[in-house]
Design a protein that fits this description.
Length: 157
């Protein structure tokens, strides 16, 4: 029987983090958007401590990851754990590893006293949406907006 464990990422894992970011982007048909580099990931995740990464391992082999950071909710006057990326390698799906990784993150939220566990999901990703709803997650009526590149520069003036 395979054993699932978890490992917090270290600076030595920066290349693996980038590999998993690319795998997720490829799955989402957005690989062309990835401009992340190992140097920038190291700076923001490990030097500036703006995010954390947990790997899922089957029998000590990495099979998935989650990247998350904190945001703040004025309504509840507490921080939220915001899950930015979650990805399980396709050949390891269907084993409950995605759910186990979400449970691990939920435990972090509870243990650290955070107010909420949140994430976004692409609107076309019905299998993931159905899965999240089956766990008790609620879909809120907010739209996510991004401002980048030339439009960001223009607004910044």
């Amino acid at each position: 029987m395979s054993k699932l464990t978890f490992k917090n990422a270290t600076e030595d894992d920066v290349g693996l983090i980038l590999e998993y970011i690319r795998k997720l982007a490829d799955y989402e048909k957005r690989l062309y958007e990835v401009v992340a580099t190992e140097k920038e990931l190291k700076k923001w995740i490990f030097d500036k401590k703006q995010a954390e990464v947990i790997f899922a391992l089957e029998d000590e082999k990495v099979v998935g990851f989650a990247l998350f950071f904190l945001s703040f909710s004025t309504y509840i006057s507490n921080v939220n754990l915001h899950l930015e990326d979650l990805f399980i390698d396709p050949e390891y799906r269907g084993k409950g590893y995605g759910k186990a990784l979400l449970k691990k993150l939920a435990k972090i939220v509870v243990e650290r006293g955070y107010g909420r566990f949140e994430w976004t999901c692409l609107s076309w990703n019905k299998p993931s949406i159905d899965f999240y709803i089956s766990l008790g997650a609620e879909q809120k009526d907010w739209n996510v907006f991004h401002l980048t590149g030339e439009n960001l520069e223009k607004l910044a003036g």
